[in-house]
Design a protein that fits this description.
This protein has 2 helices and no strands. The chain has 62 residues and is mostly helical. It has a domain of 27 residues.
Length: 62
């Protein structure tokens, strides 16, 4: 392998590592919101409340 080829491979590897580090940083910023969303989905469903009835326009006896 030539010196130029080795330098190109090293530069490509460093760029890949930099891109991965940037992606990890981006995900760590989004992760707290995502974790809260997943926790909310895992919670047991609450009873139907009055607001839900108003949303679907149901009344007593429907």
């Amino acid at each position: 392998m030539t010196a130029t080829g080795a330098a190109d491979r090293l530069a490509e590897r460093l760029l890949d590592e930099a891109v991965r580090a940037q992606q990890r940083a981006g995900w760590s910023l989004a992760a707290p919101g995502w974790a809260e969303y997943r926790r909310a989905l895992a919670r047991p469903a609450r009873r139907v409340d009055e607001r839900m009835f108003r949303l679907v326009r149901l009344g007593p006896g429907d």
